């Protein structure tokens, strides 16, 4: 499955495949762009199949209903939403086009990297664990970005060597996606990635 979302400020492309032999993907994502911001949420439900999908889809749905909220608030809401469910690793990215800044928070092994035209490389370290309704600490950070910066968010089903070089080489989100194609063939888990470029 491929989903594109874009406006004059950002181009994104999301790609998703279920685990080999499974009809249902345990990952879910939500992307929305407005004139002033973009929000992107990616969740990886624990395990695979329908139980994993129930947890991750609950995150996508919640962010869709509350996309105007700050990232900190959304992470707390997501944690509450997963009470009595299997649990999920969750990342939320919110980009403010006017201030040329983005806020990011993550719990679990979803990765995010942003590479700027000047060579600036931003890789916020996630907090270990997963959301399940239990008390949880969050690390929410805000950074500025350069026009032309490229980013990727991906679940652990995608194993990527040399991600910095990959982001540097890709000329567009479509080009980045083509370069990632070889790595999507070797998956042993649900796999989702979102690549984007900021203008």
Automatic annotation (TrEMBL):
InterPro entries: PPM-type-like_dom_sf, PPM-type_phosphatase-like_dom, Ptase_RsbX. It comes from Metabacillus halosaccharovorans. The lineage of its organism: Bacteria, Bacillati, Bacillota, Bacilli, Bacillales. It comes from the Bacteria. Gene3D superfamilies: PPM-type phosphatase domain. Pfam families: SpoIIE (PF07228). Residues 9-198 form the PPM-type phosphatase domain. Coiled coil: none annotated. This is SpoIIE family protein phosphatase.
């Amino acid at each position: 499955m491929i989903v594109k979302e874009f406006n004059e400020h950002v181009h994104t492309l999301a790609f998703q495949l279920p685990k080999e032999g499974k009809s249902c993907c345990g990952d879910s994502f939500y992307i929305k762009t407005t004139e002033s911001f973009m929000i992107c949420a990616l969740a990886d439900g624990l395990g695979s199949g329908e139980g994993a999908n129930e947890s991750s889809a609950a995150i996508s749905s919640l962010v869709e209903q509350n996309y105007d909220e700050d990232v900190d608030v959304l992470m707390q809401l997501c944690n509450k939403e997963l009470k009595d469910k299997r649990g999920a690793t969750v990342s939320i990215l919110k980009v403010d086009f006017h201030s040329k800044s983005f806020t990011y928070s993550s719990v679990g092994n979803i990765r995010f990297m942003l590479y700027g035209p000047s060579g600036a490389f931003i890789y916020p370290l996630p907090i270990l664990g997963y959301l399940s309704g239990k008390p949880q600490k969050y690390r929410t950070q805000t950074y500025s970005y350069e026009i032309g910066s490229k980013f990727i968010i991906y679940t652990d089903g995608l194993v990527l060597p040399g991600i910095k070089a990959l982001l540097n080489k890709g000329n567009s989100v479509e080009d980045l996606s083509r370069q990632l194609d070889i790595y999507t063939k070797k998956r042993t888990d649900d796999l989702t990635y979102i690549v984007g470029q900021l203008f």
